[in-house]
Input
Amino acid sequence: MKDGLRFVDCDMHIMEPVDLFDRYLDPKFRDRVTLPVGADGKRKRGIIYVDGQPTTYDHETQQHRKPIVGKVKSDTTQPLSGSRMAESGRLDFAVERNYSPEAQVMGMELEGIDIAVLFPTFGLSLLARDNMDPQLSLALAQAYNNWIYEFCQYSPDQLKFAAMLPVHDVNLACQELHRCVTELGATGSFVRPNMINGHFWHSNYWNPLFAMHEELDVSMGFHEGTGAANSHMNTLFGENRFYRHVASHWIEMQQAMIAMIIAGVFEFYPKLRVGYLEAQNSWVPGILTRIEWDYPQYRDTHAPYLSLTPKEYFQRNCWAAVEGSEPEIEATASLIGADRMCISTDYPHFDSNFPNVANNLLANVSRETAAQIFMGGAQLHNFGDEHFEKAAKAMAEKSKQLAAE
Output
């Protein structure tokens, strides 16, 4: 708990091990995936190639980075980013433990997190390109999901995971979602908001996947990641990651929400729970207002199937994440409801405010608002009292073990 408040991290990340594919990928696909190798001959973290294609284009576009003139300041006093400095040593405990499950739980204790839903790091872009062999897409998703399941077994009442879905074939995506939920205990899925193989999120192509989430009673989590091969932001802003990082997380997510609301996804799948993650959320009221503005002109002719307003759909089916230090959180909560918000620590990424995410939120909004936001992930993932009781017991046991070491 954080200052007596229950806290679900709706978007905590892991760092995948470099031998994940050696250990978990179906052997018949292993020669199609390559990782960097160091001078010692061992694999190391870096750009992964699948079928000879990089999973992220950051290395391609950054060759056009503008030259640096003069000394660049490495410190900052900005409230949105003040605790992100690598030299602060905030992640030393995790680095020393090679981002192990033990380190994950230690990070949760530092932030006061009861339950964390885990998302990938290099896996954010692993499947993010068009025209991938669907069977390879499935094999990669299965390898990651099997690994993250075992990772969570260190403390399964505290560590939950969102299943990676092979979106290059909707039927395979449904198959993998069913396996992960019914056999591995996944509490939801992870997909990107980008268009894949010409299918965007208003397309009927995805209806079986929406239905599967609804039937299994699990959440669908949209999570962007800068540099993906199929992101239009590479075309627009390829020479500068600053542009792409600002634009991709907000704009791709906005487009996905527009598509789902106007297409009637939430009309036809009224029990579907969707999280829009790591994109902050002050954009949500404006998008809802814009759709509402156009309702009189277009609703009857272009979307006669809609029976609710945009805000009503959002407040029934959607959650959008904050990262704790945004100055507009309280104002946004007054417009969309604090109970439709959740919070992401984004641990252990470079742009996270860990270990001060929860502190920032409590300093930034009323305790009542903070309590609802801390619990937003519980509503998104359908966690109840029994989940928190088990998590508290597990945290006490792990803390005792760590103290004894």
In short: The chain has one domain: 8-19+100-404. Residues 241-263 form the longest helix (23 residues). Residues 71-79 have pLDDT under 50 and may be disordered. The longest strand covers residues 8-13.
